[in-house]
Amino acid sequence: MRPEVVPFFHAGTSTYSYVVSDPGTGATAIVDPVLDYDQKSGRTATLFADALIAQVHEHKLDVQWILETHAHADHLSAGAYLKDQLGAQLAIGLGIVDVQRHFKKVFNLGDEFQADGSAFDRLLRDGDTFALGALEVRVLATPGHTPDSVTYVIGDAAFIGDTLFAPDVGSARCDFPGGDARALYRSILKILALPDTTRLCLAHDYPPAGRQPRALVTIPEQRANVHVAGKDEEAYVLLRETRDRTLSHPQLLLPAIQVNIRGGRLPPAEDNGISYLRIPLNAI
Known about the structure:
By secondary structure, the chain is of the alpha/beta class. It has a single domain, classed as Ribonuclease Z/Hydroxyacylglutathione hydrolase-like (Metallo-beta-lactamase, Chain A). It has 7 helices and 15 strands. It has a 6-stranded mixed sheet with strand order 1-2-3-6-8-9, covered by helices on one side. Strand 4 and strand 5 form a beta hairpin. Helix 4 packs across helix 6. The longest helix is centred in the N-terminal third of the chain and has 12 residues.
């Protein structure tokens, strides 16, 4: 079964969002949608998300699911906006509850924030399946980058989140709360065990000079990934943990996380009608 996969590249965050549909029925899922956010002004916008909606309307698609591969630290999610606009269900991995509990403390969120996954319509476990028209969506738990990371296998396409980047770039960092380089190595092996004909759909691409961003790679290409090829688990963990110690925090970490643990909704407006993001000082 081969779904129609249309990637959209959000240049500001180097993120790929996907409109994935069953050609026979038009049943559709949108994977990892981005909400535009200007950090300097604190303004959000929906131009990118509206381009996904335009694709849906142009091809008369029936959006049934908004699928998050994890609670992103590098962009704000448009999941809630698309859910409201299209009437779809919003889903994420069950590990989101652990992520919510951790960051509820970091941001000192009040009782209005429920760290129980209820911001999402469905929390997904390893091995869960559900229908997308005549297609089956299969969930693989692929933790390591974050505890809530999942891969969605839809026909011959797998949406792998941040687990692996392009083969010449490497793999995801594991120094976020709940991250684990050993778990990520095992998740990578799980992905590489998929059939060689599987299209791996990347959540990001950070191409070196001279190469254009690419959304899709193959299993054989990823077996040659610069962080994976020729490495056993111990060698991979050493590489990953050594590299993580050199990385700075993602630019949008603080605004992104406190929106994305809410399923893409902004914090509730205060008595002046304005929503506020919190910046915990000397806490990260």
